[in-house]
Amino acid sequence: IFPQTTISRNDFIGNTIRDNGTNGVSMSDNGFPFTNQIFLRNVIVRNGSVGVDVAGVQRAVFVNNVIYGHLSRGIRLKPQGISLTRTNSLVNNILFSNGSVGITNAAIGTSFLFNDVFGHIRNYANSLALVVSNGNIAADPIFSNAAAGNFRLSGPTPLSPCVDAGTTNLDPLGSGPEGTRSSSARSGRGRAELQPVVGGGDR
């Protein structure tokens, strides 16, 4: 996404982005304001270098996404000219097996809450010790069958550590239908918990 005009308040919800030769999602302000985007319950898998590449984006919210199987990084937040990249939030996401780094954060004021970042050479770069703070963990999420594209969380045996281990506080849609990660009082992380998403099919 490289805007030629102001872009604000768009919702990207429930998408599957996979098997592209380059990045899964690339966002750059390109000299124009790029603010208040919502990325919710997306599955971003095996898209070349980086799952989500963000430059000059402000006040974006990334909630309940699965980012898996990229060659270089899961999420990269980087500065962009005079716009900077700042006050973005990453909440309840699962980043698993994305090459060298799970999250690279060169942005200002990024909030990291209740994410599971695991299976990288380094889980974090340019970030403080987030693995055991603010509800963040580093544990195998135990997908039902990631190789076959099934990113539901496993359970009850074995039980994914991401089930009932997130927060609903920053979910822009509030409590979701049964089976989504926001359906319980203390929700799980990632795209879905133990059941398929109602109306969305299995992913």
Write the layout of secondary structure elements.
Elements (H helix, E strand, L loop, with lengths): L6 E2 L2 E3 L2 E3 L6 E4 L5 E2 L2 E3 L2 E3 L4 E6 L5 E3 L2 E3 L4 E6 L10 E3 L2 E3 L4 E5 L5 E3 L2 E3 L3 E4 L17 E3 L4 E4 L50
Parallel strand pairs: 1-5, 2-6, 3-7, 4-8, 6-9, 7-10, 8-11, 9-12, 10-13, 11-14, 12-15, 13-16, 14-17
Antiparallel strand pairs: 18-19
Question: Would you kindly provide a written description of the structure presented here, covering whatever features stand out?
Answer:
The chain is mainly beta and 203 residues long. Helices cover 0% and strands 33% of the residues. The chain has a 5-stranded parallel beta sheet with strand order 2-6-9-12-15, with no helix packed on it. A 5-stranded parallel beta sheet has the order 3-7-10-13-16, with no helix packed on it. Strands 4-8-11-14-17 form a 5-stranded parallel beta sheet, with no helix packed on it.
